[in-house]
Design brief:
With 268 residues, the chain is α+β, with helices and mostly antiparallel strands. 26% of the residues lie in helices and 40% in strands. It is built from six helices and 15 strands. The strands form three sheets. Strands 2, 3, 5, 6, 7, 8 and 13 form a seven-stranded antiparallel beta sheet that branches. A six-stranded antiparallel beta sheet has the order 4-1-15-14-9-10. Strands 11-12 form a two-stranded antiparallel ribbon. The longest helix is centred in the middle third of the chain and has 23 residues.
């Protein structure tokens, strides 16, 4: 197979900074203060290493966590395996982020969703709620696992009635509390979801994205968009997908990588 790829990362409509970063065959967003970034592979490639990283922590902490993750990934471009990802890359980046937290204070972390395409097979790895999708024959399938926990929190509210102080418990539902991410101090839980040796078919389209895309654009809308624009260049598809998220409100940063597979013989 040959692969064409492109990425776009947008600050969105509500955020003050873009905490997302991406990795696409050695290219990543080097300037963490850049609000909008995009890149397309100039030539088709037989191998693709792609990933998105959704940083969190407030101030510039989220951007730094995501940047550390993409910079560290470059050294694994040529020799990638689940063993190296699980035993080397993830623990290494996790310790980098923890050291930075201890030095700077505050909180810092990032999700990870990675896709490695090698010839006729695909491998996926993820921590957190960034995702990889596979679009095939008019169907859109999520091939990563969301590490989130639906949790009911309790908040104590003090209010006054006729001069008497009273307390009330308000229930707050948090649907997307991450249970795994880079920057965890509980190292025993730092095991990514991964699936390897997924057969690739011609005309497959892979989408690697942060939750800023899929929280704003329904799976059905994403599927229809991919079906309608499947013959377009990956960068045009990525721009359209990000545009849908912005039109829907763009409440978060939006990062989207689109990769198209075509048969080697047909590309000649």
């Amino acid at each position: 197979m040959l692969f064409e790829s492109a990425v776009i990362s947008h600050i969105g409509c509500k955020r003050e900074n873009n905490e997302d970063n991406y990795y696409l065959n050695g290219v990543y967003k080097q300037n963490i203060q850049k609000e909008i970034a995009q890149f397309a592979e100039p030539q088709a490639s037989r191998n693709i290493l792609a990933g998105v990283f959704d940083g969190a922590g407030g101030a510039a902490y989220g951007e730094w966590a995501a940047l550390m993750a993409v910079v560290s990934l470059a050294k694994y471009q040529e020799e990638l395996s689940s063993k190296r990802i699980v035993n080397e890359y993830i623990p290494y980046v996790n310790e980098l982020i923890i050291k930075e937290v201890n030095k700077m204070g505050g909180k810092m972390g990032t999700t990870l969703a990675m896709l490695y395409l090698n010839g006729d097979t695909a491998n996926v790895y993820n921590l957190g709620d960034s995702r990889v999708y596979l679009f095939r024959k008019k169907r859109l399938m999520q091939i990563t696992y969301d590490h989130i926990q639906e949790q009911l929190l309790q908040k104590k509210i003090v209010y006054s009635t006729e001069g008497i102080q009273q307390e009330k418990i308000q229930h707050i539902e948090e649907k997307h509390l991450l249970t795994k991410y880079l920057g965890m101090k509980n190292r025993k839980e730092l095991k990514p979801y991964f699936m390897e040796q997924i057969p690739i078919m011609k005309h497959d389209i892979f989408v690697v994205c942060t939750d800023g895309l899929y929280n704003m654009v329904s799976k059905d809308t994403m599927c229809k968009c991919l079906e309608k624009r499947k013959k377009e260049a990956p960068l045009d598809i990525a721009r359209t997908m990000a545009g849908e998220a912005l039109l829907a409100g763009g409440k978060d940063n939006v990062t989207c990588i689109v990769i198209k597979a075509e048969n080697l013989e047909e590309s000649k």
